[in-house]
Amino acid sequence: WRENFKAQCSISWKNMKTREALKIAIFEEEYFYNFYNALSAKVVSPTFSEILKKLASQELIHKEKLESINSFKIDLVPEIDLVSGDIASINIKDFSSIKEILLFAIKQEISARVNYLKLKNAVSDPKVKELFQMLADEELNHEQVLTEELGSYK
User: Are 74 and 125 in contact (CB under 8 A)?
Assistant: First the structure.
């Protein structure tokens, strides 16, 4: 999955077609599903490990919801600029501490939320708009959960 994701990330994040943006969002959700699962095996705290497993399962649900959008007819805007997640070459082994990993994950959750709001504004179908808003809200929740956990590492 990692090589496939790197290929997807070679696409420019500027002036992206909405369908391309949707593909990248799907790959990002898969990336964070794997990222949070891998991280859950590395942390000492059983409570934090469970939080990470829950985040991983939510990322998988996000991926499935995004894949379901393909069944909708989407009015595509000509272009959309996304916030780059900078995750194509990142591996958990690249970090020196849990705090560093948390800061990275928080940044990525913020980027995901911003991108879902941009995608929401790029489509006209009310059901798809609602789905992107729901995903943005859930990414905000992820950010809050990770920020709370970060507080214990200061």
Answer: yes
